[in-house]
Design brief:
- By secondary structure, this protein is of the alpha/beta class.
- The protein folds into three domains: 199 residues, HUPs (Rossmann fold); 98 residues, SH3 type barrels, CATH 2.30.30.280; 85 residues, Beta Barrel (Elongation Factor Tu (Ef-tu), domain 3), CATH 2.40.30.10.
- Helices cover 27% and strands 21% of the residues.
- It is built from 13 helices and 17 strands.
- A six-stranded antiparallel beta barrel has the order 12-15-14-13-16-17. The chain has a five-stranded parallel sheet with strand order 3-2-1-4-7, with helices on both faces.
- Strand 16 and strand 17 form a beta hairpin.
- Helix 1 packs across helix 7, helix 3 crosses helix 10 and helix 6 packs antiparallel against helix 7.
- The longest helix is centred in the N-terminal third of the chain and has 17 residues.
- The radius of gyration is 24 Å and the shape is globular.
- The protein starts with 26 loop residues before the first helix and ends with a helix.
- Its EC number is 2.8.1.14.
- Belongs to the MnmA/TRMU family.
- GO terms for molecular function: ATP binding; tRNA binding; tRNA-5-taurinomethyluridine 2-sulfurtransferase.
Length: 501
């Protein structure tokens, strides 16, 4: 099998990557290409594209509607990213059914070897076993690509540094942009594939042959709950032009039905959750290993009351509810003082005067190369999921490091905005680009009283004594924000904290 060299991750320190969030062409990617070129190009083609007789037991007739995103009118050579899960496996089988020459690639990315209790279980081996079994059904070659070093340098280290700075990064966006459709694409660049495919729920509309210079377009998938355009919103136009997403016109239920129809070995396998490189390790445990712990204090934002201690501000994100271990709640993280290692909390997170609908976005990337002409009739996603906000966007030139910044005005309030996360922009069903939410709120942040700010700056916090006894919260009348608003904002806040649980 193809191996790009087993590498052991080395800890590196990255400065926050704003505003130049993604390198256009990292020198490391050229090194990947050199390693791939060690394998004879002609020998690789002979191995990958030799015609093979498929097992007749697995030649299943597929309805044409399921092949609509597979370019069935052409015969292509497609590199298919195969994870061992159901979605990518069905994507492979649909491309195969459409008559394309497919080669599957399993990306073996970073895993922390010194977590001995988990490493012995080799969490990636089960994925690879399923991937191989899926390929064997229809005699599709499977290659294993080692991108451990690249994943560490361009995803994991960035995540660590962002949490160290008090921000909340998005590993899925980083992995798609830098690894799956970054380092991997560069690695196979000399191998003459027409397209790269994966099991993402999204649509890519490519221009016709006589309009090849026009940009490709990223559109919402049929399944709005599973739609993953948010995670793909920071790709470049060059990356987008090389992609096919066979599941863009299919719902998750239909994918499961197709998996059963194909009799896939993983047809009953559950969808993966969390960050792929961690396996069975909790994210909080991973953060503790690489950033450590540093005891700090928890203060009530409105009163400055000393409520308790925490392990380090980097374990908490804005809107987090779980893990605070404070009585009389629910309590929510509303602000963080990174310099003094203080976490501010409140039980009034959802009151009207605490809501946010104005924020700023940097590291902007537009699929067309330019922001849209009409900036006042857009939609915005501030997290993965089916929910959109109508919004208007105003571009401010040269605010951060000389790069443009977008000031976003939502039509509704949102409580879960966190610096470091992405905001993806849409015009109708078309995703037009995205950027990274910045710390600056233009005084729209959660109000913290002066007493709390003074206590946070206190050098000797042992003078605070023992935490105050927390009184039972007086309930806010439900009519002040409405049942739907309470429930929506509760889900928003809990979703922001899910990655840390």
């Amino acid at each position: 099998m193809l191996s790009l060299g087993a590498v052991r991750p080395v800890m590196v320190s990255l400065k926050p990557l704003l505003p130049s969030f993604f390198p256009q062409k990292a020198p490391l990617f050229s090194a990947i290409s050199r390693r791939v070129s060690l394998l004879s190009s002609s020998a690789w083609r002979a191995h990958s594209f030799t015609s093979r007789a498929s097992n007749p037991l697995h030649n299943v007739s597929v309805e044409p509607c399921y092949l609509s995103c597979c370019m069935p009118d052409r015969r292509l050579r497609v590199a298919v990213l195969l994870s061992g899960g159901v979605d990518s496996s069905v994507a492979l089988r649909l491309l195969h059914a459409a008559g394309h020459q497919c080669t599957a690639f399993y990306l073996k990315i970073w895993f922390q070897e010194d977590f001995e209790n988990f490493w012995s279980e080799c969490p990636w081996e089960e994925d690879l076993k399923y991937a191989k079994a899926v390929c064997d059904q229809v005699d599709v070659p499977l290659e294993v690509v080692h991108l451990s070093d690249e994943y560490w340098k361009y995803v994991v280290s960035y995540i660590i540094e962002e949490y160290r700075c008090g921000r909340t990064p998005n590993p899925d966006v980083l992995c798609n942009t830098r690894i799956k459709f970054g380092a991997f694409m560069d690695a196979i660049n000399s191998m003459e594939f027409d397209y790269v495919a994966s099991g993402h729920y999204a649509n890519v509309i490519h221009p016709s042959a006589d309009q090849i210079n026009k940009p490709s377009v990223l559109e919402l998938s049929k399944d709005m709950v599973k739609d993953q355009t948010y995670f793909l919103s920071h790709l470049s136009q060059t990356q987008l032009k090389r992609l096919i997403f066979p599941l863009g016109g299919i719902s998750k239920d239909e994918v499961r039905n197709l998996a059963a129809q194909f009799d896939l070995p993983n047809k009953d396998r559950k969808d993966s959750q969390g960050i792929c490189f961690l396996g069975k390790i909790k994210f909080s445990e991973f953060v503790a290993r690489h950033i450590g712990e540093m005891e700090g204090i928890i203060l009530e934002a409105e009163t400055g009351d000393f409520l308790g201690s925490h392990r380090g501000f980097w374990f908490y994100t804005i809107g987090q509810r779980q893990g605070l271990r404070l009585p009389g709640g629910p309590w929510y993280v509303v602000e963080k003082d990174v310099k003094n290692n203080v976490v501010f909390v409140s039980r009034n997170y959802f009151s009207f005067d605490k809501r946010r609908r104005l924020f700023r976005v940097g590291s902007l990337r537009w699929f067309s190369g330019l922001p849209p002409k009409q900036m006042h009739e857009l939609q915005c996603k501030v997290r993965h999921g089916p929910g959109f906000y109508d919004c208007s966007v105003e571009i401010k030139s040269g605010n951060v490091g000389g790069e443009d910044v977008a000031v976003v005005h939502l039509c509704e309030d949102d409580q879960g905005l966190a610096a470091g996360q992405f905001a993806a922009f849409y015009k109708g069903k078309t995703c037009i680009g995205s950027g990274v939410i910045l710390e600056s709120w233009d005084d729209q942040g959660f109000p913290v009283c002066e007493k709390a700010l003074e206590l946070a700056r206190m050098e000797d916090k042992s003078k605070l004594g023992k935490p105050v006894k927390i009184k039972v919260k007086t309930e806010i009348p439900e009519g002040s924000q409405g049942k739907e608003g309470i429930e929506r904002n509760r889900l928003v806040a809990e979703s922001q904290a899910a990655i840390m649980s």
